[in-house]
Amino acid sequence: MESRPSVCSVLDRADAAASLPRLGGMARPDGVVIVSERFWAFAGRDGTVREGEMPNPPRALRHVPLLRGLVRLGASLSPLFRRSGVARPRERRLLLAAVLAPCVTIFLPEPFGLLAGLAIALGLIAWMLRGRTLHLHGAEHRAIAAAEERSLDASWRGEARPSRFSPRCGTNFAALVAPVTFLFDRLWVLPTAVFTPLVVTLVSLALTMELWQLVQSSKRRAVRVLLVPGLALQRLTTREPSLEETRVALTAVAAVLERELV
Questions:
Q1: Is residue 227 domain-shared with residue 255, that is, in the same domain?
Q2: Mind giving me the DSSP string for 116-152?
């Protein structure tokens, strides 16, 4: 893959920077998305780079407990769902259908509703992890870790190989969502209504985001042990990336940091 002329110079500047924004990302079959709080960039395996700005929700919403978690979760998915993002129209429709599917399956009698929900979830996971996604997922983690360790240039040259496992991976979030949703569903005391499954799902996501942010900000081992199941799952959701795949992710990192370091 041919690199853009500015990639290595941006990585050098970032390695020397006193501070860098916290980065996140997602892997796709054809490339890697890297995001900061303000910008996102997609670097494709074909050498293309697409860039955009992250949504800026009202400040008031970002400080309301529970609601702030849903706002943050929605913002993290914006590079996929927005019209100028990385997903094609057909893909956006498929993703939206998968998100809304639980609202339909709740009307099915048991056990058909549960089976339909599991089938949709498994199908969505298989579709999201198709192709080289697992390897690019490892590359995404490696590139973000390189930014945090200030080894971006060394990672580009292949002299450093930061971990492909990340404590902030969405796999860790998913590993927390499942038990939180199960417990909240069992503790639900209000009368059951048609909208109950949707409310349980939304509140569970919001609670998990609050727990997620607490775990991420805590240095206590007793708290961070909650990340162990997700880190174990990453052995299934990531693969060791090649140097070329790592450079794809680093190209996306450089595109974001180039704007952040202005």
A1: no
A2: HHHHHHHHHHHHHT-TTHHHHHHHHHHHHHHHHHT-H
- For 54-65, write each residue's pLDDT tens digit: 988 787 777 788
pLDDT band at 69; cut points 50, 70, 90: confident
Q: What DSSP letter does each residue of 193-226 carry, written as one string?
A: -TTHHHHHHHHHHHHHHHHHHHHHH---HHHHGG
Distance CA 89, CA 83 (A): 8
Alpha-carbon distance values, 16 to 7, 19, 36, 205 (Å): 15, 9, 18, 37
Residue 36 domain-assigned (yes or no): yes
Residue 158 backbone class (left: φ over 0; alpha: ψ -120 to 50; beta: rest): left
Distances (CA, A) of 70 to 39, 110, 210: 19, 29, 10
> Mean pLDDT across the stretch 194-200?
68
Given a cut of 80, is residue 194 above it in pLDDT?
no
Q: Measure Cα distances from 197 to 66, 98, 117, 182, 223 in Å.
A: 17, 15, 12, 11, 29
Is residue 44 domain-shared with residue 149, that is, in the same domain? yes
106 is in which domain, residue-wise? 87-131
Q: Tell if the pTM clears 0.90, that is, is over it.
A: no
Q: Are residues 148 and 23 in the same domain?
A: yes
Please indicate, yes or no, whether residues 15 and 43 belong to a single structural domain of this protein.
Answer: yes
